[in-house]
Amino acid sequence: MVFNQTEKQERSYLQQIISRLKKIISHTDASVKDHVDTLAAYKDYLWNNKDIDPHEIRSMRESILNHFAIGESVIDKRKRLAKIVDIPYFGRIDFQEKNENCSVIPVYIGIHTFHDSESRTTLIYDWRAPISSMFYDYELGEAFYQSPWGEVKGDISLKRQYRIRDGKMEFMIESALTVHDDILQKELSSNADDKMKNIVATIQREQNLIIRNEESRTLIIQGVAGSGKTSIALHRIAYLLYTFKDSIFSKDILIISPNKVFADYISNVLPELGEETVPETSMEQVLSEVLDHKYKYLSFFEQVNELLTKPVPDFIERIQYKSSFDFISSLDRFILHIENHYFKAEDVKLTQYITVPAEFIEEQFHRFNRYPMRQRFEAMTEYMLDMMKVQYAFTVTTAERNFLKKEIKRMFAGNNDLQVYKDFFEWMGKPEMFKMRKNRTLEYADLAPIAYLHIALEGGTKNSVKHLLIDEMQDYSPIQYKVIQKLFPCRKTILGDASQSVNPYGSSTADMIRKALVTGEVMKLCKSYRSTCEITDFAQKIRINTELEPVARHGEKPHVLQFNNEKEELSAIKDLILTYQASFYKSLGIICKTESQARGMVDKLQITDIHFLSSQSSAFVQGIVITSAHMAKGLEFDEVIIPQIDDKNYHSEIDRSMLYVATTRAMHRLTLTYSGLKRTPFI
Ligand SMILES: Nc1ncnc2c1ncn2[C@@H]1O[C@H](COP(=O)(O)OP(=O)(O)OP(=O)(O)O)[C@@H](O)[C@H]1O
């Protein structure tokens, strides 16, 4: 007989589970109170008995720490239970192991495990548990999962999905398919949340494969726009934190994200999945840190903006040159050249009677070639002085030792990163490839090569990162990946979409990243979930991707509206905003090509309740947002308006990228407007 066969039985079972959960929560509350009271009693005792002997103090300290640890774990458990009381589970499979004496077990799947210690049964399985993988991977019939003890084979005889909100079952679906389309459709048709949400209930098979991939040290995910790359990467982090809970913690993970707004936008997913948020940084921050933040540089935003507004061919050429693999080989050859030619040894007159000969010093520089060059001076000094002590029984004063080290350092012509970098271009016979901007400001593309040289000369600093996640991978160049590999030799998940580059002259494809890192498995996601078929078809006209497969969800066709002049265009945009405000949509993105156009739009529209997202913003806001295509990357909106799509504003290849990024942000409705005669040739 099937356990909880009917919907009525399921509904009553849900209420039983919720009552059970509530009961345990109230027990844990009592237990937390006990621990707090005990700790307070200890404190009072210590306060009132200042002359107690050290033994007693020590034993009390142990008890306090013990209570504290237990109290913390109870609070932790309470937090987890409180999280699941509203939505205890979302799926179920009935599984019978192919083994004598094994009966059918109902496996209810939710965000967290719920083990009932009274009945000694697991009432809810964590979605990341090995057995839960079958929910995402199999239909009815034969199935297996990998348990810690090996493969477990069996049969799935029932599969159900539930939509439970605030402890009430809205509906349940009996499904033979992997993860039923109806629920997925309902999720996708819903409105954009204020932040990215978790997708545990509807993870698709190909996505599950990426989340649970434990083998690849470096996993590179190339996924089309809206294929769930970012969501999947975050679920993967949650999976790794669960599966390797004894060896990897939230603080051991680092996310390199494109900007603060994006970091804020995704910040809810891990807490929703019951994990702590993980540290986050940017590529610029990482590179600048290597160079001790010594240099001013053009930010990536400024570079993209310059390419969009005044694309000077020399600038483009410099970026392209520094993004090639040839450039990396040349840098490597130059590092060898430094090794062979930058150290010019001289005799050092250490005391009135003792001179250290140049040849001896030169020899030591090469002897210590296992150290980065600038780290050899100390080792060379120590070694030479030790030798002198052994051979001539000669000991030096601290001042003489420091003098020798200083002299040795002076003999090396590569102590200044920037000078070495300039030398490189001279050595290459390409001095025009390096240009410093006003106020000794470096171009963004120079930051990574200088950091690369710095690490070769000085070594990289150690860090404790065990898993690195890089989003928007296409925007980073091979030399940036080289630096990343040197700094973070740990496991990596790298994700992005070559079609969405805002850095077309310095971008990387999945294969280029694999080549730069010398390792990596590439996995693809081709199904697009974000937008309706009509919006996806429209975006495909701007940039075709034959691998892209839209999920079957329909809506209005995108509108392209022409106006006689800017005034009319603005007035139409205001009307569109009013229509949006009267609709049930929750977010509207007005996406311009550049930040200054976006700022101009804010001024011209003169509407309150509009949020302007600039490259300096740090928080994502729901409602009406005006921003640039670059900032909008990674975000999504129920409705998108793209103004000024005339042929003058969108004509170059980088403009095409911006237009593609902007259109693919729309989930349900898309309108493009322009004034004048001609619209962009890209649509
Ligand atoms: N399996 C799924 N179930 C429900 N929603 C999904 C699923 N996969 C993706 N989505 C939804 O699709 C949208 C796009 O996801 P996400 O932003 O992670 O994609 P992306 O590939 O990183 O996008 P882009 O590169 O275009 O920024 C989100 O709204 C996400 O919730």
TrEMBL record:
<dbReference type="InterPro" id="IPR027785">
    <property type="entry name" value="UvrD-like_helicase_C"/>
</dbReference>
<keyword id="KW-0347">Helicase</keyword>
<dbReference type="GO" id="GO:0000725">
    <property type="term" value="P:recombinational repair"/>
</dbReference>
<feature type="domain" description="UvrD-like helicase ATP-binding">
    <location>
        <begin position="202"/>
        <end position="532"/>
    </location>
</feature>
<dbReference type="Pfam" id="PF13538">
    <property type="entry name" value="UvrD_C_2"/>
</dbReference>
<dbReference type="GO" id="GO:0016887">
    <property type="term" value="F:ATP hydrolysis activity"/>
</dbReference>
<keyword id="KW-0378">Hydrolase</keyword>
<dbReference type="GO" id="GO:0005829">
    <property type="term" value="C:cytosol"/>
</dbReference>
<dbReference type="GO" id="GO:0005524">
    <property type="term" value="F:ATP binding"/>
</dbReference>
<dbReference type="GO" id="GO:0043138">
    <property type="term" value="F:3'-5' DNA helicase activity"/>
</dbReference>
<keyword id="KW-0067">ATP-binding</keyword>
<keyword id="KW-0547">Nucleotide-binding</keyword>
<dbReference type="InterPro" id="IPR000212">
    <property type="entry name" value="DNA_helicase_UvrD/REP"/>
</dbReference>
<dbReference type="Pfam" id="PF00580">
    <property type="entry name" value="UvrD-helicase"/>
</dbReference>
<dbReference type="GO" id="GO:0003677">
    <property type="term" value="F:DNA binding"/>
</dbReference>
<feature type="binding site">
    <location>
        <begin position="223"/>
        <end position="230"/>
    </location>
    <ligand>
        <name>ATP</name>
    </ligand>
</feature>
<dbReference type="InterPro" id="IPR027417">
    <property type="entry name" value="P-loop_NTPase"/>
</dbReference>
<protein>
    <recommendedName>
        <fullName>UvrD-like helicase ATP-binding domain-containing protein</fullName>
    </recommendedName>
</protein>
<dbReference type="InterPro" id="IPR014016">
    <property type="entry name" value="UvrD-like_ATP-bd"/>
</dbReference>
